[in-house]
Design goal:
It is a single chain. This protein is mainly alpha-helical. The chain folds into two domains: 50 residues, Orthogonal Bundle (Arc Repressor Mutant, subunit A); 145 residues, Tetracycline Repressor, domain 2 (Orthogonal Bundle). The protein contains nine helices and no strands. Helix 1 crosses helix 2, helix 4 runs parallel beside helix 7 and helix 7 packs across helix 8. Pfam families: TetR_N. This is TetR/AcrR family transcriptional regulator. Keywords: DNA-binding, Transcription, Transcription regulation.
């Protein structure tokens, strides 16, 4: 087996194992020993790629974002060059974030409580910036194909949509919250803004 294939298999097993453990125990209770025992990987194999569970958590956090991007780009490439199919992929991701048991939300909240760790602080910064970058790219892609008006300010809207989505994710972690504005509503607002072409 080639080294890159081995690396991918190890990373995949680490991430799958970590997500299972987060679902069962939450982020705070998990130790590297738990990950070693559950994954069946040796300590040496794991520590060859990561130094701490926080690094694996960062991978888990980033994975959903990249999956959403892949789904969006696939819808653009194989769709009818319309607004609805790519937007549906983004909407599915936003709706998943509303789930209080969403693993990536648990990881995000956990990491936000450890921002004094320089590795975590940098990872959070990169994650937010990547979220804004992809949102901007999605808007610009829609503008390129003429399904989002040119009057939409891609930079401002991308930052605003990311901020709104993060707020939704934070709220999902508050138990028994009564809400009158949900993920479907947020998706509707995003859709309306992009269709109207507001320049602000």
């Amino acid at each position: 087996m080639k080294q890159e294939e081995r690396r991918q298999q190890t990373v995949r097993r680490l991430m799958d194992t970590t997500k299972e453990l987060i679902t069962e125990k939450g982020c705070n209770s998990i130790t590297m020993k738990d990950i070693v025992n559950r994954s069946g990987l040796s300590k040496g194999a794991i520590f060859h790629y990561v130094k701490s569970k926080n690094e694996i958590f960062v991978w888990v956090l980033q994975e959903r974002l990249e999956e959403t991007n892949e789904n969006f780009m696939d819808a653009v490439e194989h769709g009818r060059r319309n607004f609805d199919e790519p937007m549906q992929k983004i909407q599915e991701s936003i709706i998943a974030y509303e789930n209080p048991n969403d693993v990536t939300n648990k990881v995000l909240l956990y990491l936000l409580g450890r921002e004094e760790d320089p590795l975590v602080a940098e990872a959070l910064k990169q994650y937010y910036e990547r979220s804004v970058h992809l949102s901007r790219m999605w808007i610009e892609t829609g503008q390129k194909y003429g399904v989002i008006p040119e009057t939409v300010n891609a930079n401002r809207k991308a930052d605003m949509f990311t901020l709104m989505t993060f707020g939704l994710r934070m709220r999902s972690s508050i138990p028994h919250t009564q809400t009158s504005f949900n993920a479907q509503d947020l998706s509707g607002v995003i859709r309306q803004i992009l269709n109207q072409g507001s320049c602000s």
